[in-house]
Amino acid sequence: MYSYYIKINNNFSLANIWIDGGTSCDKKDKKGINQILCSLLTRGCNKYNNYEFSDLLDSYGAELKYEAYEDGISIYLKSLSEYFEKLYPLLNLLIEEPNLYEKDFIYCQNESLNNVIKSKENLFNITYDNFKKIIYLDNPYSYNCLGDEESIKNIKYNDILNEYNSFKKRKKYLLTNFAEYSFLNLKDIKASFYDKNVNEIKSKLFVNNKNKYIEHYTNSKQTIIIIGSQTCPHNSKDSLSLKILESYLSYGMSSLLFKVFRENNGLTYDSGVFYPTRKFNAPFLIYISVSERNASLTLKLLLSIWDDLLMKVINKDELSIAKLKLIGSFFHNYRTCEEITFRKIRLLSLGMDPFYDEKVEDLLKTLTSEQILSVSRKYLKSPSISISGSKKVCKNIREIWNKKN
Asked: Which of 193, 239, 368, 398 is buried most deeply by CB count within 10 Å?
């Protein structure tokens, strides 16, 4: 395990572990297995069963969080500093000596199955899952992190044990603010550590799907529209230009989406941009939620905005505001020690400078509107669209889309 120390002055100590290879490691017929494994790992270790482990954490007021993402698994432990030395060994035991009891596996499997069923109640989740299917085809990024019902039911106890054997071999990164451990200080990391070949990473994922449209029928009066493309890994030099676009489009009441859809036309319930941190080619998408009577007009406005991203440079004043909002968003994400350690451990796992965010302001100074337009044309020229709505609305939207394409 690569272990690092960061100085954060407060009364709490914490350790955040990132294990490379999350749900993207799931096999096609075992989708959801790393989500189950992640949950199972935290149900006791060594001499502590699930109840004893939980009682021990509660007795010290400690907090344990875990989550399986596309690129990795995050496990996080936090307590008052005076108790942390007693609790920290548990974190290693969870990874090195988990109990992995079969009865606990059955519980976690049922929990995952229930979570998948509940996720289908959210229309956005359905629309987004469909969107991923057409831009990523059969690549693991096209799967729901939770898995699917058929795959989860197909997972056996021995499958989990085999997956854990794979888990033990994956790269692991730990970051803590507990000074008692002689880990490498983040500030002492050499630049060569985060020097990676982005092109090599990108080529492992890119696919080209000729089908650019997908729809889902619903009886709801709400219509969800998602338009977007597959772009680049987070450690690509192009990523910052796309973050500026995200800021320009969706940050605050000065954003383009707010002005066009809410202020000028009063059309949408919700709108925004989703551009997540990914090891491989991340999705860049705009999502809109509207009433069915406004769906056609909304799509036309959205397509016009998308065209402008490919044809027009952002003017000087708007670019300046977008940069300021983006810098502010980085500060906003550093409010708690949990947020700080999670972000920096992600940067480390991506082979990036852990102090990249602190250097963004200088990087932005040289970024021009022309460069951003070039990046837009590089990744956004052939978007895909996912719709959820009534059959009538989907028919109207499909006709508008087909005329456009």
From this structure: 239
Domain final position from 133, 158, 188: 188
> What stretch of H or E contains 95?
helix 81-96
Split at pLDDT 50, 70, 90, the class of 112 is: very high
- Which residue range is the domain that position 310 belongs to? 200-404
Phi, psi of 206, rounded to the nearest 5 degrees: -60, 130
Is position 194 within any domain? Answer: no
DSSP state of 30: G
Q: Taking the complete model, does pTM exceed 0.70, yes or no?
A: yes
SS3 content of the chain, % helix, strand, coil (to 5): 55, 20, 30
Query: Position of tokens 């676009």?
Result: 245
Burial class of residue 148 (count of CB atoms within 10 Å of its CB; 0-12, 13-18, 19+): middle
One domain for residues 290 and 357: yes
Q: 48-57: per-residue pLDDT in tens?
A: 998 999 999 9
Kindly report, residue by residue over 256-300, the tens digit of the pLDDT: 999 988 877 777 668 899 999 999 999 999 999 999 999 999 999
Residue 316 token pair: 């000087």
Q: How many domains, the chain? A: 2
